[in-house]
Design goal:
By secondary structure, this protein is mainly alpha-helical. It has helices at about 15-25, 45-85, 135-145, 175-185, 190-200, 205-225, 230, 235-245, 250-280; strands spanning about 90, 100, 115-120, 125-130. Strand 1 and strand 2 form a beta hairpin. The radius of gyration is 25 Å and the shape is elongated. Bound molecules: zinc ion (ZN) (2 copies). One zinc ion (ZN) binds near residues 167 and 170.
């Protein structure tokens, strides 16, 4: 129980450990207890201070490694989902052309897909979850939010509202009510996304990373996928850089993430609505 636990245990040899040891040697001399639930009860326990010093010295490296691992894992998951969806495309029962499992209609003849599949959280078809007919209107908005054709599910390539589906030729938006419906659908995600961002922001290391990835996916991408951010506005570029900086800085992340989430949402949304206003619906 009384065996001392030195800071060396948590830090690799080198300048970091020297720095940690120097700091710890200046701390008041209190009991060293092994770190465990009961050691939380002891007053001014040295083991905890040493652990926290080691933790804050290792912090930047840990964040970078976690971000890299997460990025690699996510990239592999994207490729896996895209390939799986492509190889599971289905034949139209009427004309025999291929369509994506998530599509609502055949791109060639317009026959309804008898069992359209739902999308997963990165926007690719799930193979088992079927959308019931009562959910088809909503499914159109879900497809739009991942920049896929609302009609046939084909992924759209251009970061623009002024494009037609390469498979079926439908425009992205169908009339002014379609803009409002889409905007309202995204707007419904505001409440829970903001709550999750606030809660996640407090979690050390991973919190800001997860919070910024979450709100980008639910609130920003549905608008930003239809614009080229770098050419649109200087403010957007600044916010983009802030997001990526803040997610790596834990103490700014706690306050910064909710503020960024709200600011970015409003900016991207306004830009999208402004673009949709200029959009020519007569060309349908
Ligand atoms: Zn067909
Ligand atoms: Zn289409």
């Amino acid at each position: 129980m009384k065996e001392p636990i030195p800071i060396q245990q948590w830090l690799p040899a080198g300048p970091l450990r020297d720095m940690g040891e120097k700091y710890v040697s200046q701390l008041p001399d209190v009991a060293q207890n092994p770190i465990g639930p009961e050691s939380l009860m002891h007053q001014s326990d040295h083991s905890w201070s040493e652990y926290l010093v080691a933790y804050s010295l290792l912090y930047p490296g840990v964040v970078i490694i976690l971000a890299l691992l997460g990025g690699l894992g996510l990239g592999a998951f994207f490729i896996f989902c895209r390939r799986r969806e492509y190889s599971h495309r289905i034949f139209c029962s009427k004309c025999g052309s291929m369509m994506y499992p998530c599509g609502l209609h055949c791109p060639e003849c317009g026959t309804s897909n008898p069992s359209p599949r739902a999308l997963n959280w990165i926007g690719y078809s799930r193979l088992r979850t079927v959308v019931p007919p009562s959910g088809w209107k909503r499914h159109e908005e879900v497809l739009r939010s991942y920049r896929r054709c609302f009609y046939c599910g084909q992924p759209l390539r251009e970061p623009s509202l002024d494009q037609r589906c390469p498979a079926c030729g439908k425009a992205v938006l169908q009339g002014e009510q379609s803009v409002d419906r889409y905007d309202a659908y995204i707007g419904r995600r505001r409440g829970w996304t903001f709550a999750a961002v606030v809660v996640l922001g407090v979690v050390p290391i991973l919190g800001p990373l997860l919070a910024s990835s979450l709100y980008r996916r639910t609130l920003i991408n549905p608008y930003s996928l239809y614009m080229t951010v770098y050419r649109e506005s200087f403010l957007m570029v600044v916010l983009f850089l802030c997001r990526h900086l803040f997610r790596l800085l834990p103490f700014i992340g706690i306050i910064g993430m909710p503020v960024l989430c709200v600011t970015e949402y409003h900016l991207y949304r306004r830009m999208f609505l402004w673009k949709a206003e200029k959009y020519d619906f007569r060309g349908e």
